[in-house]
Amino acid sequence: MSSSNSTSAPILSVSQLNRKARTLLESHFDWVWVEGEISNFACPSSGHWYFSLKDAGAQVRCAMFRNRNTRLRFRPDNGEQVRLRARVSLYEGRGEFQLVVEFMEPAGAGALQARFEALRERLRSEGLLDAERKRPLPQTIRHIAVVTSPTGAAIHDILTVLRRRCPLITVSLLPVAVQGREAIEEIASAIERANRWQRDGLCHFDVLLIGRGGGSLEDLWAFNEERVARAVAASDLPVVSAVGHETDISIADLVADQRAATPSAAAELLSPDQSLWLERLQRQSEELRRQMQRQLQRLGRELQHLRARLKHPGTGIRERSQRLDDIEQRLHRAQRQRLARYQARLDSLAAGLRQKNPGPRLRERRAMLTVTEQRLRQAAQRRVQERSTRLRELSQLLNTLSPLATLQRGYAIVSRADGGIVRDAATVSRGDRLQAQLANGVLEVEVTGRKDASDGS
């Protein structure tokens, strides 16, 4: 009997069994929130996270893949209490029951919400949420800078609405990531870049639209970061924020000049309905046509009235032609008389100029200058001759009194080595070395003896 039952039952491989168990688990459970303590945390080179989540009575294996854990703003460690949102599954390779984690936050009621409230209060205390600082949107919008993901639903919805309502509006996309840690800096930098282009004259934007489609609180969290909020507050361009669905409120929504419930609603807010514009244009066109007809009728009546008053212009033209000839003749006479007066005045001035011509006086002064120059040259020559004669006389006198002349007669000047002149034989001793200055040359002498003046006598 037992053999018969085992033969009729379907035989599954281990892989098939694990696959069925996984399908059963994933189809039975929706997303679940689980809280517990992390243990056995591991992060291999792939970037995926593997760990166990435990409480006092049990534990469960967990996996959080790289495309999810890079969006977190913290890295968990063993012993931390966390709350995570996960899908119940089974790892077929080892037949292990596990949780595939989509989101994780530190444990504690509303940790993200608490951060949200804290930032909102801080910005409110600085006045960044005040209605008085919010600027109105431009009346006419021709160019919108959109900061969002290039592949998300938000840009598709925005372009669809604008194409339907007002296709003339230009849209410039500043592509950014809209979730994850890298999205924070990308969004803030894109806002600052749009304002810099505006200031530098590279682009002219009328308004800046930032946002993304719906998602969970953690998916939308990049728009709740202080870096993004301050970039929005510092923007010179008016900012419209459209983050998530109608019920989602972000910090960016609170700081922006205008909040829209969705990206589609933002596009409607910023664009006029072209059908309304066409209807308005048609009404204005009809009104313009009626005014033109009234104006033409009024001008027609005035033309008829003027035509009735108009006389033939020939008479007036002949009279004015004759008057013109008379004026021309008077003008010629006046010109001739004025030219005659000017010629007489010119002749009188020429005669006076000839009388005051400085030529003769210059020639007289030049002759006097020549005579004076000759006198000066003669006086200078006489003075030089007189000085030369006086110099020769003084030179002869100087030669007469010069000791060099005395030396020429055979005398000598005797001096010591220090340059002192010897005038008395009593002042030298035997062995002293002296110098005798002759008319030509110097003698080095040594005293071998002396005779006083009394000896000679």
UniProtKB/TrEMBL annotation:
It comes from the Bacteria. Residues 12-104 form the OB-fold nucleic acid binding domain. GO terms for biological process: DNA catabolic process. Residues 278-337 form a coiled coil. It is found in: Cytoplasm. GO terms for cellular component: cytoplasm; exodeoxyribonuclease VII complex. NCBIfam families: xseA. Belongs to the XseA family. PANTHER family: EXODEOXYRIBONUCLEASE 7 LARGE SUBUNIT (PTHR30008). Bidirectionally degrades single-stranded DNA into large acid-insoluble oligonucleotides, which are then degraded further into small acid-soluble oligonucleotides. This is Exodeoxyribonuclease 7 large subunit. It comes from Chromatocurvus halotolerans. The lineage of its organism: Bacteria, Pseudomonadati, Pseudomonadota, Gammaproteobacteria, Cellvibrionales.
